[in-house]
Amino acid sequence: MSPYILLVEGRKTGRRSWAPTLSEKGYSVIKAHTRREALLQLRQTAPDLVVLDGRHLRFDVYRFSRTVRADGHQIPILLIVPSDWEVERGSGVNVHLREPFTARKLLNRIGRLLPSFSDNVLQVGDLVLDLQQRTVTRGSLNHRLTPKQARLLEVFMRHPGRVLTRRFLMEQVWETDFVEDTRTLEVHVHWLRKAIEDDPAHPVFLTTVRRVGYRFEIPPQTPPGTTESETTEQEA
Questions:
Q1: Which pTM does this prediction carry?
Q2: Domains of the chain, with CATH numbers?
Q3: What 3-state class would DSSP assign to 67?
């Protein structure tokens, strides 16, 4: 599953759009042109990274970034700015990329921001999912999963800390957007909790967000050094 990038750019970007470059690199690109479209896509598609092209946008990109953080999203944000742009610190933007720059430099910055996953093994904190063997390991505990359970846990582990809607999960795991009956999803979440939680009745890894969906995250008591972290750099 290739990483999803939400590219927010102006309608008149034209040939200066970075969408072809990102697509050629193998990323799945979701485009938005307005603040409202971007926030909607952020909620519905749960991308792995937001690229804000501040050159032609007609809304305040820093206000947008603060809104994203206020909504609880920890998704990395890369902001492209003109050479004379005054950078605003503390807005939630992880990396500023100032013109001029090459496509290679943009892709390198994106690569640093995206979480790195091997093809067959995912690890978030002390939870390890082997996609080939369909096993999940936490400490000395090891459980074998069905194909759908493994796929569902993979989606959660690729989006740690983010609220994933029921519609998004149904699309990713069962390839349908039918959400009138989500009992199948609820049963699979129940099974995953039995496999990864100390107390499935009081989950800390996989929690329910009422009327929306679910969130997968590493609980605070996880030993230091086991959660994924990403160091980013600011460019002035």
A1: 0.56
A2: 4-113 (3.40.50.2300), 121-216 (1.10.10.10)
A3: helix
The answer to whether the CB of 95 falls within 8 A of the CB of 233 is yes
The helix/strand/coil state of 173 is helix
Tell me the two tokens of residue 101. 């720059």
- Residue identified by tokens 């796929």 is 151
Alpha-carbon distances, residue 51 vs 9, 55, 93 (angstroms) = 8, 12, 10
- Read off the amino acid at residue 150: A
Whether residue 218 contacts residue 205, with contact meaning beta carbons closer than 8 Å, is answered with yes
Instruction: Look up residue 234 and give its two tokens.
Output: 């600011």
Q: Which residue has the tokens 């290739």?
A: 2
Q: What is the pLDDT of residues 110-169, one digit of tens each?
A: 988 886 655 678 888 788 898 888 999 987 788 999 999 999 999 999 888 889 999 999
